[in-house]
Amino acid sequence: MSLYNYPIPPSSELTSESTFLDRRKFLAGTTGLALAGFAGTAEAKGQAKLRELNFEKSPMSVPMAEATSFKDITQYNNFYEFGTSKTDPARHAGKLTTVPWSVKVDGLVNNPGQVDFEDLLTKFTLEERVYRFRCVEAWSMVVPWVGIPLASLLKKFDIQGNAKYVAFETLVRPSEMIGQRARGSGIKWPYVEGLRMDEAMHPLSILAVGIYGKTMMNQNGAPVRLVVPWKYGFKSIKSIVRIRLTEKQPSSTWNILIPREYGFYSNVNPKRDHPRWSQASERVIGSGLFARRIKTQMFNGYADQVADLYKGMDLQKFY
Ligand SMILES: Nc1nc2c(c(=O)[nH]1)N[C@H]1C(S)=C(S)[C@@H](COP(=O)(O)O)O[C@H]1N2
Ligand SMILES: [Mo]
After folding, report:
1. In the CATH scheme, what is the code of domain 11-310?
2. Residue with CA closest to ligand 1 atom 5
3. Gyration radius from the chain CA atoms
4. Most buried residue, 144, 244, 254, 294, by most Cβ within 10 Å?
């Protein structure tokens, strides 16, 4: 079945020469610390070679100068499919085969089907968006993602009127995902996540396909992962293989595991503490031995863009 019953722009229209040249300039300007990590980690065992991406810059970004180094972004991770410690993903995720890859889109859509990873790269406009990224454990990074707005993908499948939520699923492949063979985490695979329809369609929600201008390392969720910058990190589900439109609120991995600690919304909120720790401040990853702590902002600093989505909701109750 063909998903693409709409005209596909030739790739020359997706990235004009001037944005490409711009990007070269940008890369030249950041070759110092930030890109230094490429050499050491890009060729991790089994990891597919990172590919240069053609993208446009998004005005929704925070300043690139704040970006966390490639090294920190790729060596301090959460990806329970590869183990429960922060260093496990960098060590074990190289095993995962990410080629070929496709994402199935089904549920309440008139045009169910699947989209190949290659089509995500060539048939959609890729944008670089430097986003704040905040984990529920009170540490944060700033990541120069390359991605496509989630809405632009979902629209291709012709969403039915009764669809109210979007459910996401990660790959299950225990032969390549060591954490899916171990008991440790207690997680029931696949890792699942969900968004309300208006959250999913919000322009800040992206499907990321790269970091620092290239495809991403497996430990970051290659080849395609969600990024929802105003929510805690666990909503940003990695290595997605299925997206399902639903009428009922979908379940989410951490809510299933510990419902008292992790709710469905998971909006960054300094005024609502996690039962076991404060969420009022965050440790800036990469800030050195005497880790810098900064005050956490409501909605991770994106309140101007997203506060309206939750107007009238009790955010202590809907955490
Ligand atoms: N499939 C899957 N997605 C996942 C996770 C996971 O364990 N499995 N961990 C989440 C958590 S808790 C965080 S903080 C972010 C971490 O993303 P990063 O390692 O790219 O910084 O990924 C999220 N997405
Ligand atoms: Mo997290």
Report:
1. 3.90.420.10
2. 79
3. 19
4. 144
